[in-house]
Amino acid sequence: xxxxxxxxxxxxxxxxxxxxxxxxxxxxxxxxxxxxxxxxxxxxxxxxxxxxxxxxxxxxxxxxxxxxxxxxxxxxxxxxxxxxxxxxxxxxxxxxxxxxxxxxxxxxxxxxxxxxxxxxxxxxxxxxxxxxxxxxxxxxxxxxxxxxxxxxxxxxxxxxxxxxxxxxxxxxxxxxxxxxxxxxxxxxxxxxxxxxxxxxxxxxxxxxxxxxxxxxxxxxxxxxxxxxxxxxxxxxxxxxxxxxxxxxxxxxxxxxxxxxxxxxxxxxxxxxxxxxxxxxxxxxxxxxxxxxxxxxxxxxxxxxxxxxxxxxxxxxxxxxxxxxxxxxxxxxxxxxxxxxxxxxxxxxxxxxxxxxxxxxxxxxxxxxxxxxxxxxxxxxxxxxxxxxxxxxxxxxxxxx
Length: 400
Ligand SMILES: *Cc1c(COP(=O)(O)O)cnc(C)c1O
Description:
eight-stranded mixed beta sheet; 30% helix; 2 domains
């Protein structure tokens, strides 16, 4: 079968030759294989955007926080963004550069700790701003920002739309009217999800129209454009992004910050699973039980939902043998989908899932007593190294 016939979305960019060189026999499944060279390729693209615009780029830890890779990522990016105290701590301990945090709300306890370890703290409401004002006034070396809701986004799925009418994220422009904003140094918005720079262009128009007067305030030093920029995807228009950032900086004279999660580790990881049983079914599609689970290891398959790409597998019926792939849990919906293969699958065979570094390890759980996949590192030389292995203890320790 030629590479062309393999079912791969246009922007899935795994280097198939390298994937095929992977010595699958060496891997204990289920496992993630992080492709260090692909990660570095992404980082070089991000570094080129920084160089050409002078913007700052942060790793959004929400999407990828395998800190084994922080020393590498640190060489290219300026810091991390965190969504809560634990991500902020992880960034402080392991990344050691700038820590920017945005959370929908902070408890008093967390806010006090965040003051000690953050560079930027972004607030989501005026009630929190008023509540923490006395502490903010005394804080040294911390800058504060507010998140705005531009009320414009092109995300169709409500689950992922932070700019919807009912969204709890950000302040709408009317809420800023006549407010004292002198304590803040920055403005943050985040309304993109897996988008190209033409969407950012349209978003910026709305942001400028609704919030231009606030962005222009002399105390505002930076504007954070959030994440969702799919910068490292092969059809992403980097030139347009560079122009947009440079034009914005020229017009407002403010620092621009981007905080992508996906783009950092896009197509830089695989999930390898083994077939543990094949069950003949009367409804025409045989069921394969894998040692990986949608609900434990790739919950976005169910939540989003989406259909992951599997090397050498196609849409159902396209190749000779179609199977329904299911996980080892007792959740009926723990199904990855129907896929077809050229040859019949056999017990013990390994399947390779693409683009599995992002929003996977960070979302793992041990529901139903299913173990966490090991993490391996894969390097240019073909070298495979175990980064981390998990066991029964990791399951038990979370429960009592
Ligand atoms: C999720 C999130 C990001 C990262 O988004 P990606 O889609 O992974 O690039 C960045 N900033 C904020 C505030 C987020 O919620």
